[in-house]
Amino acid sequence: MSRAPVTYVGFSDESNWNTGRFRSLGLVTCPLSALQELELDLRDLLKGSNVSEFKWTKLDGAKDRFAANKMCDFAVNHARMHKLRVDVLIWDIQDSRHNIRGRDDIANLQRMYYHLFRNVLRARWPNDAVWRLHPDEHTAMNWETVKDCLENVSKRVETECSLLTGGQFRVRLQREFGIEEIQQVSSATHPLVQLADLFTGLAVFSREMFDEYQKWLQYTSPQAHLFEESQTSKNLSQRRCERFQVLNSFYSCCKQWKLGVSLATKRGLWTPDPKNPLNFWLYEPQHEDDKAPVK
């Protein structure tokens, strides 16, 4: 069976998928026609910042902070011009869906991918888009198995198994979302994966550290007393302060361009209107029977 020509591409990454209270999954998407320009601009940006590969987990000093701020500005500017989207799905393992015994985090991650694809690939881009997906090669998902199934299974195959289990998840990727290819890639050579890494990390951080961020804002404001600011700075690590600056800069930029990203309402990055091109989405249980899969 011949493949349809790819027209759109997506780059995905995960943050804290199996550790901490908040977990996230990020997807950067763009038309294939814009990919070369975006990658070139982002590579030049990172090279100019003397950063060979950006990773949120390594952000602990001024050099990486400057690079992160430039990457945020890059995303804002290109999102405003409708050249790319950034969608980050965040979930809370203390909610009624996830706070259950025997939760299967990998199976749950698969479901979260499904929700993200359903709300981005078809809902935010043309319905006839044909997709190539580039997950980070360091992923918990077994994308090779999914890729093999996409290449070998007929679109006419009907499955009787329940939603998102086994083959049905893989068949649905092709039939429902138009994903023709899956190619795992190294983030070191694909800067849009690094962009996904930045925003998945920032989304989790904004929730985990929301109270501390508010205190940091208070004590770094011009009205703060010098003594109080000094005492607060002693209680905050340099790593955390650098990240607060990135979060604050990004949020301020979103407000400046009226991109509809909220921070205080949900105590973390959140976009009320998911049509907006920088979309932070907090997954909420859909009904009382909406439970994470168990082992």
Describe this structure in words.
By secondary structure, this protein is of the alpha/beta class. Helix content is 44%, strand content 14%. A six-stranded mixed beta sheet has the order 5-4-1-2-3-6, with helices on both faces. α3 runs parallel beside α5. It is globular.
Question: SSE string, helix = H, strand = E?
Answer: EEHHEHEHHEHHHHE
Low-confidence stretches: 153-166
Question: What is the overall shape?
Answer: globular
Radius of gyration, CA atoms, in whole angstroms: 20 Å
- DSSP strand tally: 6
Number of helical segments? 9
Gap between N and C termini, in Å? Answer: 36 Å
Taking the sheet with the most strands, its summary is: 6 strands, mixed
Helix content: 40-55%
Strand content: 5-15%
Decide which structural class fits the backbone.
Answer: alpha/beta
In order across it, which strands form the biggest sheet? Answer: 5-4-1-2-3-6
